[in-house]
Structure formats: C-alpha cells, structure tokens
Amino acid sequence: MLASLLFQRLAPYKAHVLAIVLLQLVQTAAALLLPTFNAKIVDDGLVAGNSEVILRLGAWMLLLTVIQVLAAVLAGYLGAVVAMRVGRGLRQELFDKIHSMPGQDVVAFGPASLVVRTTNDVLQLQNITVLVFSMLVAAPVMGIGGVILAVEQDVALSWIVFAIVPVLLLIMLVIVRKLVPLYREGQGLVDRINGVLREQILGTAVIRAFVRQSFEMKRFEAANDALTKNNLRSARIVAAMLPLVMTVVNLSSAGVVWLGGLRIIAGEMQLGALTAFIAYIMQILLAIMMAMYVLSTAPRAAVSAERVTEVLNTDSERVLSAATPDGVAVRPSAEGVRFDNVVFAYPGAETPVLESITFHAPPGTTTAVIGSTGSGKSTIVSLVPRLLDVSSGTISLDGRDIAAVPLDALRNQLGVVPQESWLFRGTIAENLRISLPSATDSQLWHVLEAAQAADFVRELPRGLETTLSQGGAGLSGGQRQRLCIARAILRPASVYLFDDSFSALDTVTEAKLRAALEPELRGATVIIVAQRINTVVSADQILLIDEGRLVAKGTHDELLKSSGTYREIVASQLETEEAA
Amino acid sequence: MSGEGEQLSPAGTPSRSLLRLVGLMKPARAVMAAAILCICGFVALNVSAPKVLGDATDVVAAAVFGARFDPGRFVFLLLVAACMYCVTSLLSWAQGRLNALAVQRLAYDLREAVEAKLHRLPVAYYDGRSRGEVLSRATNDLENVSQTLNQLLSQLLTSTLMVIGALGMMLLLSPLLAVVSLMAVPLSALASIVVTRRSQKYFVRQWEATGDVNSLVEETATGHETIKLFNAQSAMAVRFADHNEGLYAASSKAQFASGLMAPLMGFVSNASYVGVAIVGALQFLAGAMSIGGIQAFIQFNRLFSQPLGQIGGMAQVLQSCAVSAGRVFELLDAAELTAEPAEPGGVGRADAGRGVDGPLGLPSDSPTGRVAFEHISFSYRPDAPLIEDLSFHVEPGQTVAIVGHTGAGKTTLVSLLMRFHELGSGRITIDGVDIAGMGRDALRRNFGVVLQDPWIFSGTIRENIEYGLPGASESEIVAAAEASHVGHFVRSLPNGYSTMLSNGGEPLSQGQRQLLCIARARLSGRPILILDEATSSVDTRTEVLIRQAMHRLRSNKTSFVIAHRLSTIRDADLILVMDHGRIVEHGTHRSLLERGGYYARLHEAQFAAGVGELAAMPVRSAKHRAGQGEMEAS
C-alpha cells in the first residue's frame, strides 16, 4: 500500500527523482571512495614512507568531500521540494474527496478522523518520502558498494559480511512486522483523542452546566492512556532495534580483526587492507542503520498510507457528467417536484425511514410537511438535493428523474435552508455569496431585508463585512437561521426547501419573514418542513408524516376535517386560546 | 504545569519552550537519571572498544614489522572488545527504553494538561477561534513534540556524551591530531547557527499553516451538507488550496533547511577525516604514532565528528519540536477564568471537579431558588452594550419565561446566571448570595440545563442521560426518559438504551436529541431549571405531553424558560419581554395580553392562524381562504 501509493505519487516527478538518485549515487560513491584513498595512504604512503604521495592523495580526498557535499545539498533540495509537493497534492485531493463523497461517508469517517488524515497522516507520508530520498537511495548503494569494496580488499574476509547481512535483514523483518499493527492502532487512537477533544469543545456549555469536567477528564484519560501505552509499546520495539544491529555489526568488526590479523600473520593480506576493511564494515553498518531508520518509520507511514488511500478510494457521489445532454436546462414552467412511491432506508437498517411516499408539489405552490419528532420529515428534504439517495421509487424534478440529472445541475436549481444553520468563518457577505458568487452588495441587502436580517446586520459595526467565527458563534440561533434563509433565497432557484427553518424565530419575525419571502419565491416550488401550525396553515397542501408514512394530505381545512392526528396537532398549539 | 502560566503568555521563544519542556520532565527525573547513567556507560565503553581493537591490530602490526606474534594477547584483546560491545548494546537498549518512558510520560502529561485547560478556558475563548485550530495544537503539535522528542532525547544525550568521550580518547592518543579534529567544532557550530537562523521562521509558519489546514478541514467536514447544497465545493477547494500552498511553501523550505544540515555536517566530518588521515600519516612517518594508533584515532574521529554532525542535524528537529511545544504552551497559557475565592473543604458531592473550580456554594444544602437580577449590565464588545441596567427577581418555585426578538439577549441572560460570562456591573443573587462570590461549579450544580443546540457525546443513550446525575440507577434513568418521551423512540431502537450515538447524536433526529437532553436535565434533579429553546425541534403534540410532565416537575423548582412558541410558556408565573437588552414588558400571560403591547402582538401573530384571523396573515395563497374549519377546532 505504502509502496504503491508513493510510486503513484512520485510518477509525475520522474525527472526530479532521477536527478535525486544520480546525485545520491555521486555523493555515496564519493563517501565510499574515501576509505580506499585512506588505505592507499597507509599502504603507498606510510609503509613506503612517501610523504608526497600522502599529500597528493590527501588533496584528492578533499576534492571528493567537496563534490560530495554539493551533490548532497542539491539532492536534499530536490528531495524536499518533491516530498512536499506530494504532500500538497495528497492534501488537496483528500479535501476534494471529502467534499465529493456522499454525506453518509463523511459522517462515517467523522470530522475528527478526516482532519487527522489530512494533516498528520499526510505529514507521515511526507516524512517518509524525504527519508526515502535521502537514505533509501544512498543506503543500498553504500551497503552494496561497501560489500563490493570489502570483497575487493580481501575475498576471504568477506564471508563475514555475507554472514551478517541476512541476520540483519531478519532482525528488520521481525521488527517491522511487530510495528505495523501497533502503529495502525496508534493512528486510530490519535483519531479518538481528536474526537473526544472536539466533542468537549462543542459541548463546553453543557459540560460546565452539569459540572461534569471530571467525567470528561476520565473519558479523555482513557483515550490518553491507550495512546500512551500504544506509543510506549512501539517505542520499546524501536529501542531494541539499534542495539541489536550494533551488536551484530560490532561483533563482526572484532571478527574481522581476528581473522584479518591471522591472515596478515600468515602473509596472505596487507595491513592497510585490514584498516580499510574495518572502515567498510563501519560503512555497511552506517548504511544498515540508515535503512533501519527509514524502516522504523515505514510501518507508521504504511498505516498512514492505508488511511489516506481509504479516503481517496471512497466512491464519490454519483456525479453524472455535466456533459449529459439537456441535463442542465432549467425549465421554470415545468411540473415541479414529484415523489413517486419513494422509500428510503439506511443501508443495513431494519425499518425504512420513509415508506412509499407519493406526492406532487407543482411550481408556484407551497407544500408543508408536518409530523412528529423523528417521523422522517427532514429525510424528505434531504432526498431532493440527493444528500441521500432513494432506496426505491423515483423523485422527479420538472419531469426528469433526479437520479439522471448531474448533481451540480440539480443542486443549482435548489435553494435549501438546512435544519442546522451552518455558517463558515468569513464575512457575512462571503457567507451569503456562497450561494451566488456574483451577487452585488445591493442584492445581498435585498435578501437580508426579506429574511428580516438586515436590521441586525446593519447594527453590526462592520455590517456585511463583519467576520463570523466558526459556526456563526456570537450570533443567536435566530440570527444564524435568518442568515441561512437569506443565503438560500439569494440564488434564483426553481425549488426552495426549508427544513424547520423558522424554529428559532419569534412569531412576529416569522410572520414578517414569510410575507417578505412571498414575492421572492413566486413561481417556484416551495417545500417547508415545520412544527408550527401557523407556518403551514397557508400552504397549498400539507403532508402529514407519521413514522415514515404519509398519513394525510390536503389543505389545512381539509385536514382539520379528515385527520384526527392533524386536529391533535392544531389543538396542542391552540389550547391557550381555549383558555382565553 | 499551567499554574505558572499567566505571566508566560504568549509562549515566548523556541529556546524558552524547550527549557519549559525540560522542566516538565521533572516527574520522570529518576527515569532520566537512570537513562543518563546508561548513556555514560554506553559512551565510555563505545569509545574504549575501538581502542582495544586498535591494540589488537597493533599486536598484528608489530608482528608485520618483525616482532614475535603473541596469539594469546591478540585473542584476549579481541574477547575483551567483544564483551565491551555486547554490554554497549545492552546499555543502549536500556537507555532507549528509559527515554521512551520519559517521553511518553511527558506527552501523556501534556495531553492531559491541554484537556484540563479546555475546561478552564472561558466560554468566550471558543467563540473567537476555530475548533480546528485549537484541535491542531492539541493533536498535530502535541504529536510532533512527542515524536520528535522520542527521536531526539536519546540521540541528543548519546551524541553529546559521545563527542565528549571521543574527544577525551583522542586527546589521550594524540593531542596534535585531536586539535586537527577539533577544527570541526567551530565549523559545525557556524553551519548550524546560520541554517537555524534561517529555518526558524519556516518552522513557525509550517505549524501555523498546519493549523489553518486543520481548521478548514474540520470546519468544512462539519458543514459538508451545506457545501454540497450550494455546490460550493470548488469555492472551498480554492480556499483550501490557499492554505495548502502556504503549508507547502513553509514546509518545503523548512525541510530543505533542516536537510541542509546533514551534508554540511558530513562535509565537516569528512574534511576532518581527511585532515586526520594526512596529519596522522605524517606523524607516523615522523615516528610519533603507531599504525594501530592511527587506525584507532580514525575510528575515534568518526565517533567524534558523526555525533557532532548529528547534533547539528538535531538542532533542526529540535526547532520543529520547540515551535510545536510553543504552540501547545500558548494554549496552556491562555487567560483562564478569573480566580475563584478559595475555601478548603465543604465539597462533599459525588461529582467534585478536580481542582477545576472552587468549592464555594450556597450556605444551605437545599436552596430555595430565589433568584434576583439587580441592575445588571453586560456587553460582548465594549462598543455595543447588550444589556443595560436590568433588574427582576424570581420567587422560589416560580416559572419565568423570557420572550422577545431573536438577538434580544435572552440566551445571554441565562448564560450570565450560570456565569458563562461575567457581569459588566450589577449583581445576581441566589437565595440572597451573590453568585460572583460562589465557586462556578458549586453555582452550576444548582442548574438543570437544556441548551439551544442539543449536545450529545459519543456513547450510549443511557450514558448520555446519566450524564445529568452520575451513578443514577437504571430505574431513575428510565423514569426520566419516559417522562421526557425518550422511552417511546428508544423502545423502537434494536439496542434500546444501549444504542451507540456518534457524531453529535447520529442516528437520532434533531427533535429526539432535544428530548434526550431534557431527560438528562430532568434526571439531574437540580433546584433551578434552565430551558433555552429546549423543544424548538420537537413536534407540538409531544411538547404538550412534555409540558404537562414538566409542569409537575417544575412545581417545586424555579425555572427559566426561553421559547418562541408561546404555547410553551403561557402558564409561566412571570413573563419577561425583552428587546435590545431591556425588559420592555413583564407580567403574566393574561395581564400582558390585556395590556395590548408587544407580547399581545407576538401572540396575535402566533395564534392568528388558529383562530381564523388569516386576513391578518400576509402570506401568499392563504388570503383567499380564511378557513371556517378552524373555528370548529377551537
């Protein structure tokens, strides 16, 4: 997973990668040649007693080190640029994917985990890319080069080298195997820490009101404990790795002196060769330690690669190509929204949320949806913009099955006010323009007037340019709701959907708002989910939903006559009047 | 650890952050001492082993130059070297484990400190900041500190001691060659300082940009539906690309700068290697050194210059660590809530917060719930006063309803009562005691609260209800749930009360979440109830049932109810009508109606539809049919 991800990500940087490999070869070769020159100084200079040779060879060594540093710096530069570009690309793709995957998948991953994946996991991948460039290229070259040069110095001694390499490989294999599952669990635990903290920030007021800080601390402590234990376990394994390698390599260097010494005594080998041989053994050790360092971070990166790929491989929403013939056309005078035997069930759920819902909401009319808590009203609103897809049956907009309309074209025809008023950090103007980027300031003021939001926006010191913090904190629930309404009606749409969008408004404001909305929405299909009778009383048709079923349909008058449930709802809101 | 916090804010320079990190390792003193001991032994052995190997080589060299070969001494020296190497490895392993322990403990403590801090920050702290940014400090930065420290600590200690040890051995072998080697030190230091100067700002930017990226992902993943609805994916992607580009620019520069260290140090190390080789060879010719001595010296030179180079390289990692630590400390040092009047003892309740707030409560264990607001004023921003000179009082057991325009200051009023915000002037008393003099926790233990946005944490339905009264029995939980009409829908869930809720309450609907929060407040059994739009998403039939149940519940409790639906509040004992931070009308439902003011208009708007006054409702397509049917209904 890690290898294939990196391979795929590095493909666009073939020239860079090639240059890095070449530069690393140069600098590694230079590093490898140094002990050879040193051996020559010993054999040709020292033993022969020739100081001129010593100085000449010394000058060559200096030149080599200069070449080495230049190559290494350039390789380092290219490596940094490529690794960070890989990271940048991954983050952008993750972000785009998060916003093209179905909403249910976003919920399934959870914002906390998505955040960790886009930042921390990508960071791990960046780090390993840098390491791969700086070490994984140089290490084999240095290792293999060291072996070749060692063999060249003395064949008989070289079997020591061939003996230690498999031992070292075995050590690495065992350790990597142990680390991967630990790191996998570890990143999951980082998600959990992030998740708990996020919930705590969201729930600050409730936690403090109920004085449950100590409970929250315990909840966090559990996650913290688990993460710390996990980190400790992997750190211990990593701590064992280097000493194991050092033992093997150091013992073999002692072995080299032993065998080499005997061979020198026997006259089969020169003294300089022994010095150089030890240097090569050290070289090989260094190469292996470098490789080990990369490999010790590899399991972590491998886990990150899995987590990133998991997001990237999530199927996007069924986005039909925008080029689909005549999919984009908006036909304002067509037949509006039609639900035909619509069933919706969450995958795996036993009972459907909605069962065979059929109704028709023609243009120029208002359809109200009313029903008890949890009866599936909001689901109806979510189905039209295809935030959720029907399980069976069809929904059509202006005669076309919405499943056959490109998503962006479909959503461009809709003005939706969701139940939860979501505003992002940015100015009020920016928040509104998300709906219609080309809107002028006067258009913004116009919709703010209609949404009964102009007064309070005007009172803000910076008006439209007031910066809202996340989620619109600092505004009251009703103010947020009205900004969301202004945002939805800013765009010219053929269908407007209001999901319980007046719940935080006082009745006077609501009445004014609905009156002001009328000219704005004229000619469009309007679907309103509501709790209050006075919101729905004027609708052209009212759908009464109970436990996922459409139990009654008609105007207020008709339902008063035909539906006992509806009468109960009305009565529940009118009992004041009976008393009065 | 955050006790000394206030005067240190903002977090200060990276070097101060590092010092503070070191200070935080105090609890692991013993572990660290043991680790340092291991490293000392490791270094001593590691630097003397090559000397022993060198001696063994000299035995061979002596034979080459004509002396008698002494195999016994040769083998003995090799065995000694082998043993030394084995012990070296053991010590290295031990110190690695000890260091891991110390670092993980530090990371654990830091995480806990950050979390505890979240509970001590004023509510307003979160209003001005994005969650993602705070979270990025708590996870990305903290993980960076833990990960880099894990790498650094043992390396840094080992390298430093190694440099010192190797230097000592080199001085012992040949002072002249040692001087040649020492020339590497100023070169390394210079390179390190030059690079560090330049890279520092990139590291700071890198972690700031990480915070930006984090917060945008968090924010948009939370609001993903709205983004889809408005086809704003590309607009958001552009914003993201902006942050992403900033992160790329900073991190590639930071990476290059820190990557620069390794080759530079390698150069210094190799240059000194060359110098030693040349000077050593000349020394040998002059008869001042043995071959074995030179060989050992060359190894020492590696042992000296390599860790020296590593220290230079680590300086960069250290910086990244310091910058992240600084960001964590900045959070830990953020101004906290004003100090509580301290008073020992007197807590005695099951849920006493660990040092979060002071214990000061009401004089009596059973407060009557008489609440008085006396000439209070408050504003979020100094230039825009929200509440001015507002007074009213509530008798024990009364229900007070607060109505008024959205944005009139209703929610602010109850948040002042719970001391989420502090008053500008005036005072609020409960049973005659000024709440400003009470411990915040002690004060809040008097309130059962349902707030505007229902908050559900990841856990079962049972756990979420029990939240109101830790340790409540199953029957108490079920009773509270039944009375709040939670039982009704819980029974239809396959796992009932054990159903896991996640992501703020999935799979419950908004209204069901509100009911759950009501059950929680009900279970808490606290003397004062605060219901802020507690039933706004609950259908009105269910609300009637809840209201009846609430009415019984409220009979001996003081209640504050904020609602737009007037049906929710009509039987309140006192209705306060607020406008622009002032109480413009007050009275009972009936007296306010008779008065014919703002409340009456509000009422008219709400109930007009039901009593057939549709002509007054300027809503399209309704005008032509002012129904007769409604008359039947009423």
Question: Can you describe this structure?
Answer:
The complex is a heterodimer of chains A (580) and B (634). Chain A has 580 residues and is an alpha/beta fold. Chain A is 65% helix and 10% strand. In chain A, the strands form three sheets. Chain A has a six-stranded mixed sheet with strand order 6-9-10-3-11-12, sandwiched between helices. In chain A, helix 6 packs antiparallel against helix 10. Chain B is of the alpha/beta class. Chain B has 20 helices and twelve strands. Chain B is elongated. At the A-B interface, helix 2, helix 3, helix 4, helix 5 and helix 7 of A face helix 2, helix 3, helix 4, helix 5 and helix 7 of B.
Concise structural overview:
With 580 residues, chain A is of the alpha/beta class. Helices cover 65% and strands 10% of the residues of chain A. In chain A, the strands form three sheets. Chain A has a six-stranded mixed β-sheet with strand order 6-9-10-3-11-12, sandwiched between helices. A four-stranded antiparallel β-sheet of chain A has the order 2-1-4-5, covered by helices on one side.
Question: What brief labels describe this structure?
Answer:
heterodimer, A: 580 residues, alpha/beta, ABC transporter transmembrane region fold, Rossmann fold, 2 domains, six-stranded mixed sheet, four-stranded antiparallel sheet, 65% helix, disordered C terminus, B: 634 residues, 20 helices, 12 strands, 60% helix, 9% strand
Give the low-pLDDT segments of chain B. Answer: 1-11, 342-358, 609-634
Structural shape of chain B: elongated
Write down the overall mean pLDDT of chain A.
84
What is the number of strand segments of chain A? 12
Largest sheet of chain A: 6 strands, mixed
CATH homologous group name of the largest domain in chain A: ABC transporter type 1, transmembrane domain
The fraction of residues assigned to DSSP E strands of chain B is 5-15%
Strand tally of chain B is: 12
Name the CATH architecture of the largest domain in chain A.
Up-down Bundle
Largest sheet of chain B: 6 strands, mixed
Which chain pair has the greatest contact? Answer: A-B, 204 and 213 residues
How far apart lie the N and C ends of chain B? 65 Å
The CATH topology of the domain at 7-333 in chain B turns out to be ABC transporter transmembrane region fold
For the biggest β-sheet of chain A, the strand order reads 6-9-10-3-11-12
CATH class of the largest domain in chain A: Mainly Alpha
Tally of helical segments of chain A: 20
DSSP strand (E) fraction of chain A? Answer: 5-15%
